[in-house]
Give the backbone structure.
Amino acid sequence: MAEASPYAADALIPHTVEPHPVTGIPNGKFGIWLFLASEVMLFGALFSSYVVIRTTAAHWPPEGGLSSEILNVPLATVNTAVLITSSITMVLSWASLKMQNVPRFRLWLGATIALAFVFLVIKYFEYTHKFEQGHFPSHDNFYAIYFTLTGLHGVHVIGGIIVNTFLLTAGSRMWATEPERFTNRVENAGLYWHFVDLVWIFLFPSLYLL
Amino acid sequence: MTAPTTHGAEIHQGGGNGHGHDHDQGHGHGHELPFWRKYVFSVDHKIIGLQYGLTALVFLLVGFSLMMLMRWQLAYPGRPLAWVGKLLGENAMPGGVMAPEFYNQLGAMHGTIMVFMGIVPLAVGAFGNYVVPLQIGAPDMAFPRLNMASYWAFLPGGLLMIYSFFLPGGAAQSGWTNYPPLSVLTQTAGQTAWLFAMVLLITSSLLGSINFIVTIVQLRARGLSFWRLPFFVHAQFVTAFLLLLAFPPLEAAAVMQLMDRLAGTSFFLPTGLVVSGEQWKVAGGGSPLLWQHLFWFLAHPEVYVLILPGMGIVAEVIANNTRKPLWGYRLLVYSVIFIGFMSFVVWAHHMFMTGMGTTMSTFFQTTTMIISIPSVIILTCFLMSLYGGAIRFPTPMLFATAFLPMFAIGGLTGLPLGLTASDIYLHDTFYVIGHFHYVVAPGTIFALMAGIYYWYPKATGKQMNETLGKVHFWLSFLCMNGIFMPMFFQGMAGLSRRLYDPTIYAHGRAIQSLNVIISWSAWGLFLAQLPFIWNFFSSLMRAKAAENPWAATTLEWAAPSPPPHGNFPTPPVAYREPYEYSVPGHTSDYHPQFAGEA
């Protein structure tokens, strides 16, 4: 790792670590905020589509009943708690790094990843239960929206698991050479993770409760 | 591997004065990367820019070839073209006559390839990547690996798009807009491939746009304030925001259409859809208009993604060749920012005929008229820049000058389309094709050509042949107008776009001779590109050009040509505004941004 990096340009680029005097943040943090802006537009378009389809439907859900009766509210409530907790552990892992406490960082980041897995496992049970009842996305637009929105959110959870696992394993080698940059990376991963959490905070009431 | 609990002492902090340039020297030089690292999976913005540029030029030629094929069918409907028929096979051209399905595939793919795989990658991927870091005095883009990932998402997306021609049933055939229900009901793999390829292309643009914004904000050289940025950088900056915020809704729409096609959902399929006399078996409840809204929410800002970088290039070339500062530089910048905002609220002027209601139409008609104002301001500023200049006319300036009337024709013919009353008549006719091609083909493509001739010495150290360049320009200029001017007349005569055989209608037969003129102009345009292709490659063998052959003022000319890895031998400093030409009392007729007080 110590020999000249094949990405030698990295060494030349200003503000990879030290904040820009005007914006007050390093490049990475700026980048992640822009990425989240585009994510807002992605989920915004999906939520808007949901609004359009739902408001033009004669009844919602189209087959009758209530969303809260069709979908499993208790499981989703547990999942909400799981995700919020994982956001807390994510912050704790970053805070531990700030305090130079690497074992504690690993513990909290590991907990974040584990909670993400718990979320996915619960989601898996919800999905398979729907499939067993013969309720696939093609059943009607209620299920189409439910599976598409939660599915895309699930993909984002998997993305978070991949990023966090990288930071916990191979990526953490950067701690030895550039500790501040590594800490920033964990912070950026955390920003992304909070966004994934936030999307769920919107999804849960609008899909399950309303 | 253990992570030490050392404090962050050994990491250099750039001296804490906020300038990270102090320790820039000595890294990254003096060791050679293997070929595939240097030229294939490169993280150098210049190599990535060239990769984007060459790939996009190839795709432009491919997209143009599709159109040349279509022009045969339009000029001589039903007449066999034996040797091409043999080449493309019995499915596409049975007996040498183009099959209607194949015609539709060519049409859909021409639009897709030209917009998403030709112009955008050339204007943003190539020129943005190559020129922006140089013009702001940066050693590279802010995220070199992200930059590489952007190209390597673009290339598979583009290749998948081309490959879809070879799938059973061929490529997507529902127009470049892919309106449902047709696009959902078409049961060929090509449409699914289109959607997957689009997701890749969108991802590539997203990664690129994040990189551009961060680079322009964070990596500007010392002294290079926003009001000292070349107009090209401003144009790229606004373009990046458009890409960042407008593309994700299309990604969402593509995901929903994929769900409709693969999982049998009904996001875009209405209740009670009847196809060929039979009830289509889906749940229904969706809205075909929803797709159009999502599509145009991207695709109208996309129009400005296509034109703004072109305007940026034209600004650079005009300032350089009139030997005057740009007229109304700040006005230009304000206009381009205003266009950026407004471009998000004009999308439904593509949908006046969908029955979305007069209230909506009135709103979008109004916003459309408003957005034409900054475009006219920009054009006026360019014209005023020409006024009183001792203009030189090298090839880039020829293309840049021609951009002005071409863009003006394209822009002004758009006004009748933006007004609901006249749009009723002109909608979906060849008039529309003529309008937007004037903006994008003799408009943007001429600007991009100006850029290629202008920055070729920067990227290669050689200058392109002027005589060949002038031949290229004048023939292209003639043919471009031969192609697109008659389309206005066709459209006003009522000829619909996307017709496989225009002679099935009496009004089409009456003006069929225009189609023949257009087609021969299109084939002529191809011949006009041959001197360019020859010039592009043969100029590499020429003698080394001067370091600053155009006597230009902006920062990219402070770097050697071609610039080495890391770009600048010493971090450049911007001492003044970007277009200090013909400064009274100065010894030469240009005073570069990077030249200290002498």
